[in-house]
Request: fold
Amino acid sequence: MRDRIKALTLDLLIQYGYRGMSFADLAAALDTTRANIHYHFGNKQTLVEEVLVAYTRDTIAGTAAVFELPDITLAEKIDRIVDYTRRKHDRYNHPGAGGRPWSLIARMRQDSTYLTPKGKEALQAFAEELYGVILRAVTEARDRGEFTPEMPVEDVAIQLFSIANSASPITQDAGSFDRLAQLYLGFSRIVVHAFGRGDDGAGAA
Reply:
């Protein structure tokens, strides 16, 4: 029951935000009582905190798994991040009906005044860990010869981080996933063009 409550809470929070999710909604959808949900989680803030902490942890793990793949270029990793992100987007956006929220992180940033201190810490930690994952990937690509030694890894990393960290708002503003994909892939081409090592073909898009 705990897992069912958490899964439904995640879906409702992403779609409707903190104020749009209630124990009454959960109880009705799960054919249980509000008292049972209180039994498992105590109160709404505690439930949201647990769901958010798990979501940030899983999202970092999924992102790191792509950026830490061996034997492929940074450009190829960005291609795979696009695919990974598209799957998360498409879970809440049907073809031809884009522009809906799909990230709990983006949603809870908007509703941060309702979060517990631990929930707020989870959001901050996510951003810091995401930047760290990307910085390591860019540095590793430079150090193994994909890019020239002069490539400013921190500048490149912060730009890529900015796209990843704002992925959901970008798709919502554009009304589709296409704009986010264009940003990722356009950024990848620019970096390869500016700093790629043409002598061995590494980093070629």
Remarks:
- The CA atoms of residues 131 and 158 lie 7 Å apart.
- Residues 200-205 have pLDDT under 50 and may be disordered.
